[in-house]
Design brief:
Blueprint lengths: L5 E3 L8 H9 L4 E3 L3 E2 H5 L2 E5 L4 E5 L5 E5 L7 E6 L3 H11 L5 E6 L4 H5 L10 H14 L4 E6 L4 H14 L3 E5 L13 H10 L4 E4 L8 H11 L3 E4 L1 H5 L12 H14 L4 H8 L12 H5 L4 H7 L3 H30 L1 E2 L6 H5 L7 H11 L6 E7 L2 E8 L2 E9 L2 H15 L22
Parallel strand pairs: 1-2, 1-12, 2-7, 3-7, 7-8, 8-9, 9-10, 10-11, 11-12, 13-16
Antiparallel strand pairs: 4-5, 5-6, 14-15, 15-16
Length: 442
Amino acid sequence: MFTGKYILSPMVRVGGLPFRLTCLHYGADLVYAEEIIAQRLLKCTKVINSSLGTVDFLDEDGGVCFRTMDGESSKVIFQMGASDPDVAADCAKIIEPYVAGIDVNMGCPKDYSIKGNMGAALLTQPQLIKSILDKLIAVCTKPVTCKIRILDSEEETLSLCKLIENTGVAALAVHGRTRYTRSSHPCNYDMIKKIKSELSIPIILNGASLDIKNKGDMTRIVKETGVDSIMIARAAWHNPSIFLDPEPVPVREAVQKFMRYCIDYNCPLHILKYTMGKFRGAFKDNDSSLEVTRHIETRLIYEYFGLGDYFKEVNDKRKDNQQEEFQKNKRQKLDKDHTILQEVLTPSILQTFRGAIAPRQILNQWLEANGFCKPQYWTTEHNKVFTGFLKIDNDTFAMEGNFKNKKTAIQAVSYAYCMKNHIELKHYKTNTKPQCNCHLKS
């Protein structure tokens, strides 16, 4: 699985579903998703998003933590950040059915990883690395890999790599820099060649983007170092069609493909802007990426790339589908949990109660006089249309209709309940002393 492959490296905020699909479209063999902290995923709710055709793992605030779909499930590797073996295993068991493999980030030098005892912080804790990988391999049926950086000395680096190999991982990705080396510095190919010569598992080279302008460069580096596969980040970010042989397409063409996937899978605006910032050569004339991404409306960015009509078409269709799905789900829920009150109710009927005691007040009087508990009223809203609910003792009733505000929806459900139970509705004037209309119609 990890031999002879051209792979997209994990990239924070960039490696979401639209970018992964773009790279797969242009020939990437495998795509690593951006690192997700294991603890974060454990707090997520899994949702089957029928509107987009995706499986979403949503944060507690409803934001998307991880999104995937069937078309990439055999080629996407889920990368986690973890410092606890049990938490890593629990995370893997949740996500494994939706991905092709599980990877542990052991090379990220960012502060949030180091402070969480994750990423590059693990490089000096070989026994913790072993514990995490042993646990994952024990619970996973899919391949388990990890991604590291080289250490300060050859001896330390080889010792760590051999320890990792002995856990039984399916492959090892090695970034040819230390945690302190900037990305502008050359990749240490000699160290990676040495690792490959000492280990028998597939080695994936990472960190060579400075030397890559096309797929031929990737092939050359693989041959020169003897590694099994190559993984790139920045070179793909500059032009995701770099996986094409022999040459990538013009970057603007690749960006338009990426943006279509963004439209199809509802990419958040801040992710779209961040990713757009590194696309070289995608902007007309003297327009910079900053000038384009300064737009606060997603529509304007898509229009700049000639995709305004496609954006409108997809979103209009999505709204229609969402409304249809909402009504279907609402009907199923109401059928299951509530009694739906069927009553012909027009605005003119409710208008007859203007200046009179309203159905809700009449119903409240009737319920009190007949020994019922105090009723509860509430509404739900979707697309500015309200549904009224009424709970009497342990029974709940709902009245659907084109009600434009909460008050009307509450009066509607009260009216419908009275009609259903033959409770007489007399039009008492509001300036008269309220009287209890407590008898059933004969």
